[in-house]
Amino acid sequence: MSNTILHQDHGEWVEITLHRPDKLNSFNDAMHLNFRSCFEEAIANGKRAILITGSGRGFCAGQDLGDRNPSKMDGPPDLSQTLTKFYNPLVRMIGAADLPVICAVNGVAAGAGANLALACDIVIAADNAKFVQSFANVGLVPDAGGTWSLTQLLGPARAKALAMTGEPLSAQRAADWGLIWKAVPSENLMTEARALAARLANGPTTSFAHTKKAIYAATTNTLVAQLDLEAKFQKTCGQSTDYAEGVSAFLNKRKPEFTGR
After folding, report:
1. What angle do CA 65, 70, 72 make, to 5 degrees?
2. Fewer beta carbons within 10 angstroms: which end of the chain, N or C?
3. Which residues does residue 60 pair with via DSSP β-bridges, in sequence order?
4. How many C-beta neighbours within 10 Å does residue 247 have?
5. Can you give the pTM of this predicted structure?
6. pLDDT tens, 72-107?
7. Whole-number Å distance between alpha carbons of 67 and 30
8. Per DSSP, which regions of the chain are E strands?
């Protein structure tokens, strides 16, 4: 694994750290490929949760613009290639993963870095972190799923204002608005995030996977379609070993021991 991505195995779950602190963990092509490889390896190895965070004083400043500088290129760049080759597959991979993906935002999350965080299932941020849709500052539109996430989570009015002004949004306000789950004191961030990753990794991960799919589907389904989907997923979960274990533990007043099956 490249030293731009750090990987820590915690048994049932893994911690992936963006590690270009001198560049605020902005992505270059090699870092994209190494991150994807690390994520895919965690899934292939049967891990039951993934925690993503950043090194140093920031989470991620998005794309390293030094690699996309028109003044150093033969012609205007085709930025759609960066999205279709790197960011879009990454966002889809996070969404499709049949396990919880937690993001611990340890500092500024800007541009595609902010939207990478928002693509995760649960986002915890340090109270001194900020989310910045910095695209307008360089004449671009929010990408890496940003226009979708902002609109779905905040509504069109706030989505347009954040995208067009590029004003930083504090972690606490992001939590108050429902953009992330919660903001915590910076000194407690990794302790809380790791405890959450461990808790989810030892939970009923089959039900987590179906819950995740159902919530994504709810953004486009009618109520009738969603009711049918819930019934379908509940049938699957009700036939799982975890459901039998959960009921047994409840009735016998003990802690359940879930296996994700």
Report:
1. 90
2. C
3. 109
4. 12
5. 0.93
6. 666 777 889 989 999 999 999 999 999 999 999 999
7. 11
8. 5-9, 13-18, 49-54, 58-60, 101-105, 108-110, 122-126, 130-132, 169-170, 182-184
